[in-house]
Amino acid sequence: MPRGKISRAAQVSRSVNNTGVVRERGTGVGRAADGGPGSDGQARPTAPTPLDVLVIGAGQAGLSSAYHLRRRGYEPNTGFVVLDHSPAPGGAWQFRWPTLTYGKVHGMHALPGMELTGADPERPSSEVIGAYFAAYERAFELPVRRPVDVSSVRDGTDGRLLVRTSVGDWAPRAVINATGTWDRPFWPRYPGQETFAGRQLHTARYPGPAAFAGQRVVVVGGGTSAVQHLLEIAEVAAATTWVTRRPPLFRSGPFGPEEGRAAVAMVEERVRRGLPPRSVVSVTGLPMTEAMERARAAGVLDRRPMFDRLTRSGVAWDDGRFVEADVVLWATGFRPAVEHLAPLRLREAGGGIALDGTRAVRDPRVHLVGYGPSASAIGANRAGGAAVREIHRLLGQPTPVAA
Prior knowledge:
Elements: H1 8-11, E1 15-17, E2 49-56, H2 60-71, E3 80-83, E4 115-117, H3 125-139, E5 144-145, E6 150-155, E7 161-165, E8 168-177, E9 199-202, E10 216-220, H4 224-234, E11 239-244, E12 250-251, H5 257-272, H6 281-284, E13 286-287, H7 290-297, E14 303-305, E15 309-310, E16 314-316, E17 322-324, E18 327-330, E19 355-356, E20 359-360, E21 363-368, H8 377-395
Parallel strand pairs: 1-4, 2-3, 2-8, 3-5, 8-21, 9-18, 10-11, 10-18, 11-14, 12-13
Antiparallel strand pairs: 6-7, 7-8, 15-16, 16-17, 19-20, 20-21
Helix pairs in contact: 2-8
């Protein structure tokens, strides 16, 4: 097939009706078409498998990047490969709690080249988006290998990078890192955590509201997930208490393109300076929905400042206040999953990875998409295209496929 062309089979469908798509489960990691690393029991090659671009992660940002690589003429398997840590298509969405239905999803944007149509708003978002991502991978014949764990990315030989994984080593000329944040839940430490007799869990393991029926629940965090959990749990719990480090910022009314650009610019400026990125919602605020208005009127959103310590039976403040609790739910967000990039020493003194667009300032072979200002769905789509354009300028034409 000529470089830069997508096969006829891949051109057939540019939309998917989620009521009729069967979600595929992961089938493991197959052996590369060029004899590269695999999990089929055969001996792995001693030399790393060379290719032009390795994409790490198959969520929104990774699939968008893979789509643009195909359009630029990079051949699947020989020119580029996508490695996915997850067992099935869907990125982090496949791990979301079952009560997060598609109709409750905030800010989901279609992947480039294929709309998501006809999705049942009452269906779990994990199923809807998992099926959509699976159909997308098939339609564009994207070379996604899963499940694969990437342990490190470091300097290789001949100007290439060396990527060590659970299925062997790769030697790409460039890397697009699209690992997101789901694998790095942030769990702050507070005095007395080890003495609390109740249950503590992070939003990454949130099972849905039924697990909290009849219990006294403290929800920690001021983001979208914290509020979603709080509203659900309040319907079944004996009591709920909401605590945040800072007063939550609610916004009402329209949020137009100008406001969106201003919010992204604030996050982008931190990344440009090499500071740890803040979430976009931290500068946009929480949209006030009708459900949230009702919850506020009912007192569910009566926020308290962060407690100072946990005790055996609850949480306490230094001013003498105390709340009994059976459960503390830490909806305290996530951090970028970039530890595997540590050998490249990309971090700045401020603790973050400085980017010029999507390119790591300290290594032009490495691009981060879904990081900082591109952490939203629409931002990830744009970042995927931008990263591929920059990589194409760096590498020139894709490596010709051997006859």
